[in-house]
Amino acid sequence: MIKYIVKRDPKYIELLGTGKGKNDECVIDQLISVINDIRATIRGACASKDFEKNKKDVLTSTLKRF
Questions:
Q1: What are the angstrom distances between the C-alpha of 18 and each of 3, 33, 38, 59, 66?
Q2: Which of 9, 24, 35, 49 has the fewest CB atoms in 10 Å of its CB?
Q3: How confident is the model at residue 4 (pLDDT cuts 50, 70, 90)?
Q4: CB atoms inside a 10 Å sphere around CB 14
Q5: Alpha carbons 58 and 46: distance in angstroms, whole number
């Protein structure tokens, strides 16, 4: 979804970094995956009943992981 929205922007080619390498789009895909993983981890923690009790541990472990 995120990539689709970005590709609709006329400046997508500028954002992609044309001329810097053929793997630029792969790097963008990897970054999107990391962002989605972080979001899923934090969303799961927020949905927990013990959020206030565990939020520091979750955020610390998330930062170490990524």
A1: 16, 21, 28, 35, 27
A2: 49
A3: confident
A4: 9
A5: 10
